[in-house]
Amino acid sequence: MINHILLEQRLVLMTNYLLELEKLAQTPKSEFLNDKTKTGAAESYLRRSLEAIFDIGRHIMAKTGSIDLATEYKAIARGLEQKGIVDDRLGKRLIEMAGYRNRMVHLYNEVDR
Distance between CA atoms of 65 and 23, rounded to whole angstroms? Predict the structure, then answer.
């Protein structure tokens, strides 16, 4: 059974993170890029937002019997698309976001400014 309280909690977290990102977006670009505290905060809020999205997706997929909890983020996005939970366009965006999240977390390469 899908835990709607868990989903709501993740959505609230995500909303709060996005509000913080909107505040940071008001900073002039050169000031933002030269302030390691601001760039670090933006990266953290973005990563946490992405993790909340994929926590929601993982929960929905697990509770519908469609996924192992250890499944990677891109597989979660594909599963949500295949089950019709998200449309094709959003599914592709989620796959892109999963790749971006992995680069941030695992430092595969420097994330573009």
Answer: 39
Q: Determine, yes or no, domain membership for 87.
A: yes
72/75 Cα distance (integer angstroms): 5
What is the domain range of residue 27? 4-106
Report the predicted TM-score, pTM, of the whole model to 2 decimal places: 0.78
In a domain, 100, yes or no: yes
Angstrom CA distances, 19 to 46, 59, 84, stand at 11, 24, 29
Residues 70-107: pLDDT tens digits? 568 888 898 899 989 999 999 999 999 988 887 887 76
- Please tell me the predicted confidence (pLDDT) of residue 42: 95
Residue 113 lies in a domain: no
Sign (positive/negative) of CA torsion 83, 104, 102, 73? negative
- Residue 17 falls within a domain, yes or no? yes
Q: How many domains does the chain have?
A: 1
Number of C-alpha atoms within 13 angstroms, CB side, residue 85?
18
Give CA–CA dist 42/16, Å, rounded: 13
- What are the tokens at 18? 């996005």
